[in-house]
C-alpha cells in the first residue's frame, strides 16, 4: 500500500493505478479510487487536479489515423527487405524463428497484435487484415439482425450467416472462389471443380470443390472449427496455406461428411472428430426405414455406417450374430446407438472419428 | 503501462540480433506515442510519418551497432526528437501545431468516465491553459506526466539540464494549480449557492 496520506498531485500522476484509471477512461480501477475518495477526503483537491491534468494531456495527444500505423509498417518492411540479399535474408530467418517461439509467450501474455507475425509470412491471420490484403474488390455483408441470414453468391452457392457474423466476397471472376468469414457460417457450395472454393476464416482456411459445411471462427478467439455435412473438405492453418501451390498432405486436414475439426491457434493443433449430431448422408434412403426386425447387430451397425458415413468398431464377436428388433426410425445417430447398446448390454465411445462399441452379451 | 526494464532489455537484445518479430513488436508498442509526440513538432502528418519510417529503417540497418537499452520508449523518443530537430534546423522551422482543428475532430475516451460537470470544466480550462504554454513547457509536462519519463530522461530527450526540466515543471504546475484552485473555489461557491 502506498503512503497516500502524503500524496500530492505529482504523485498521483506517477501512480500506476491512477494512470490506469484515467487512461482507461475510468473503466479500470474505478472502485479503488471511489473508495479512496471516501477514505482520504482531504486529498480530493489534489486528486481532482491530477485527474484533470492527465485527462487534458491525453486530450492534447495527436494520434495517427487508424490505417497509418499499418501503412508505415508496410513501407518500413519493404524497405528493410530490400537491403538484404536473398541468401542472407534466408540465413537470418532460421535462428530467429526459435526466438519468435520464445517471444510468443510474451506476445500472448501481452495481448499484442498477431498480424505482425503474419505480415512476414504472407496471409494475415485476422479477418480484418485479410480483407484489406485481398487482391480483388470485395463486398461485405454483416448480419446485424437477430436471425440467420442467407447470402447468395455469384456462382449459385449460398452462405447462411449467424447473427453478428461477417462475410466478404468477390464476384468470383478470378480462377478461384475466395471468401472471408468472421463468425459463424453454413456454406452450401455449388460444384465447380475448375474453380476451388476457399474460405479464409481467421486462423484457418477451408478449401472445397462443391459441398456443404459450416465454419466457426471469431476474431480474437483461439478456437475455430469446421463441420462437414456433405462432400469433402480440406482445412489448413492459415499460416501454412499457400493458395497457388500444391499443399503437402501432412499440412491439411481432410474431412468427410459428419466429421469436424477443431483448431486451437494457441497450440496450432487440429483435433478431428465427429460432429455433435451426425446426419444421414444424402442418397442413402429414407430415415423411416430404420426399423430393424430380428436383424443381426452386425447388419444394423453396417447399415448405420453406410447411412452416416461413420466407422463403427466392436471387439465382441458374439454381437455379430446377436439378433435384435429395434424401431430406430429417425432418431439421431447417437440415440440409435444408445438403444442398440442398451439392448445388448454394451457401451460405446467416440475416439476421434471412430465409434467403438465394447462389452455386451447376446444371451437373450 | 509499467515500464519493465528486463522485458525491454530482452526485446531489444533479440532485435539487435536480427529478430524481426522483436523489431515488429517494438514498432507495434511505440508507434502511437511516437506519432503523437512527433506531431507536436510537425503539423504536416506526412512529415511525421516519414520521420518515424526513417527512424525504424535506420534502427534495423544499424541494429548490430546499437548499444543495450533498458528503456526502449526513452531511446525512441530521444532519437525521434533528434531526427526531427535536425530536419527542422535545415528548414529553420519548428511548426506550431494547430490543436484546435484537431480537438474539434476527435472525441477522447478519457472524457467519458463518470466525471461531473465541474471536472469537465476544469479539464477544459486546463486544456486551454496547456495550449497557451510555451512549446517546450508543454513538451516537458507531457513527457513527465503523460509519458511518465523521469526527469533525467526528459533532460536527455530535450537536450537540456535536469535543473531546467525541474524548474519548467515546477512553474507550469504552479500555474495549473493556481488556476485549478480558483476554479475549484469558484465551483464550490456556486454549488453552495445552489443548494
TrEMBL record, chain A:
The transmembrane residues are: 96-116
Quote the InterPro entries the UniProt record gives: FecR (IPR006860), FecR_C (IPR032508), Ferrdict_sens_TM (IPR012373)
Checking Gene3D superfamilies in the record gives: 2.60.120.1440, 3.55.50.30
A GO molecular function annotation here is: sigma factor antagonist activity
Give residue ranges for domain Protein FecR C-terminal: 289-357
- Pfam family example for this protein? FecR
FecR protein domain span: 148-234
Alphabetical keyword list: Membrane, Transmembrane, Transmembrane helix
Q: What is this protein called?
A: FecR family protein
TrEMBL record, chain B:
Any single GO molecular-function term of the entry would be:
sigma factor activity
What the entry lists under SUPFAM superfamilies is as follows: Sigma2 domain of RNA polymerase sigma factors, Sigma3 and sigma4 domains of RNA polymerase sigma factors
Which biological process annotations from GO are given for this protein? Answer: DNA-templated transcription initiation
Which Gene3D superfamilies does the record cross-reference, listed alphabetically?
A: 1.10.1740.10, Winged helix-like DNA-binding domain superfamily/Winged helix DNA-binding domain (1.10.10.10)
Per UniProt, which keywords does this protein have? Sigma factor, Transcription, Transcription regulation
For the keyword Plastid, the answer is: no
Q: Can you tell which superkingdom this protein's organism belongs to?
A: Bacteria
Keyword Membrane present in the record's keywords: the answer is: no
Q: Which residues form the RNA polymerase sigma-70 region domain?
A: 27-86
The RNA polymerase sigma factor 70 region 4 type domain sits at 124-173
The entry assigns this protein to a family as follows: Belongs to the sigma-70 factor family. ECF subfamily.
Tell me what this protein is called. Sigma-70 family RNA polymerase sigma factor
Amino acid at each position: 500500500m502506498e503512503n497516500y496520506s502524503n500524496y500530492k498531485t505529482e504523485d498521483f500522476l506517477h501512480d500506476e493505478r491512477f494512470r490506469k484509471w484515467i487512461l482507461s477512461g475510468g473503466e479500470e480501477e474505478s472502485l479503488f479510487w471511489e473508495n479512496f475518495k471516501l477514505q482520504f477526503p482531504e486529498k480530493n483537491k489534489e486528486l481532482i487536479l491530477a485527474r484533470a491534468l492527465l485527462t487534458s494531456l491525453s486530450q492534447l495527444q495527436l494520434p495517427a489515423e487508424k490505417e497509418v500505423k499499418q501503412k508505415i509498417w508496410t513501407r518500413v518492411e519493404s524497405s528493410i527487405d530490400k537491403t538484404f540479399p536473398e541468401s542472407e535474408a534466408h540465413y537470418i530467418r532460421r535462428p530467429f524463428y526459435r526466438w519468435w517461439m520464445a517471444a510468443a509467450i510474451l506476445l500472448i501474455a501481452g495481448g499484442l497484435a498477431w498480424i505482425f507475425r503474419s505480415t512476414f509470412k504472407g496471409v494475415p491471420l485476422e479477418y480484418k487484415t485479410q480483407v484489406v490484403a485481398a487482391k480483388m474488390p470485395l463486398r461485405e455483408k454483416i448480419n446485424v439482425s437477430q436471425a440467420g441470414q442467407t447470402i447468395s453468391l455469384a456462382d449459385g452457392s449460398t452462405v447462411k450467416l449467424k447473427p453478428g457474423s461477417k462475410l466478404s466476397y468477390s464476384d468470383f471472376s478470378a480462377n478461384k472462389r475466395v471468401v472471408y468469414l468472421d463468425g459463424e457460417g453454413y456454406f452450401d457450395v455449388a460444384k465447380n471443380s475448375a474453380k476451388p472454393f476457399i474460405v479464409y476464416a481467421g486462423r484457418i482456411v477451408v478449401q472445397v470443390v462443391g459441398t456443404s459445411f459450416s465454419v466457426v471462427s471469431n476474431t480474437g478467439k483461439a478456437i475455430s472449427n469446421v463441420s462437414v455435412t456433405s462432400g469433402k473438405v480440406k482445412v489448413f492453418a492459415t499460416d501454412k496455406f499457400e493458395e497457388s501451390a500444391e499443399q503437402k498432405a501432412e499440412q491439411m486436414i481432410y474431412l468427410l461428411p459428419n466429421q469436424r475439426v477443431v483448431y486451437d491457434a494457441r497450440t496450432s493443433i487440429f483435433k478431428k472428430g465427429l460432429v455433435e449430431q451426425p446426419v444421414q448422408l444424402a442418397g442413402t434412403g429414407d430415415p423411416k426405414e430404420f426399423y430393424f426386425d430380428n436383424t443381426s447387430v452386425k447388419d444394423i451397425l453396417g447399415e448405420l455406417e453406410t447411412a452416416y458415413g461413420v466407422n463403427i468398431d466392436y471387439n465382441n464377436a458374439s454381437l455379430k450374430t446377436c439378433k435384435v428388433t429395434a424401431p430406430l426410425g429417425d432418431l439421431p445417430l447417437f440415440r440409435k446407438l444408445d438403444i442398440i447398446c442398451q439392448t445388448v448390454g454394451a457401451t460405446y465411445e467416440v475416439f476421434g472419428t471412430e465409434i467403438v462399441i465394447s462389452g455386451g452379451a447376446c444371451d437373450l | 503501462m509499467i515500464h519493465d526494464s528486463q522485458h525491454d532489455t530482452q526485446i531489444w537484445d533479440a532485435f539487435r540480433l536480427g529478430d524481426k518479430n522483436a523489431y515488429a513488436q517494438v514498432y507495434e508498442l511505440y508507434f502511437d506515442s511516437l506519432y503523437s509526440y512527433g506531431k507536436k513538432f510537425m503539423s504536416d502528418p506526412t512529415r511525421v510519418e516519414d520521420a518515424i519510417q526513417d527512424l525504424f529503417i535506420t534502427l534495423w540497418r544499424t541494429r548490430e551497432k546499437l548499444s543495450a537499452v533498458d528503456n526502449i520508449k526513452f531511446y525512441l523518443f530521444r532519437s525521434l526528437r533528434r531526427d526531427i530537430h535536425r530536419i527542422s534546423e535545415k528548414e529553420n522551422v519548428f511548426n506550431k501545431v494547430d490543436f484546435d482543428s484537431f480537438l474539434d475532430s476527435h472525441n477522447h475516451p478519457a472524457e467519458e468516465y463518470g466525471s461531473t460537470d465541474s471536472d469537465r470544466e476544469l479539464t477544459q480550462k486546463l486544456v486551454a491553459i496547456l495550449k497557451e504554454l510555451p512549446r517546450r513547457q508543454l513538451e516537458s509536462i507531457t513527457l513527465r506526466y503523460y509519458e511518465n519519463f523521469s526527469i533525467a530522461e526528459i533532460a536527455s530527450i530535450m537536450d537540456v539540464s535536469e535543473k531546467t526540466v525541474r524548474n519548467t515543471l515546477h512553474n507550469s504546475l504552479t500555474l495549473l494549480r493556481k488556476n485549478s484552485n480558483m476554479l475549484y473555489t469558484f465551483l464550490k461557491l456556486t454549488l453552495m449557492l445552489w443548494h
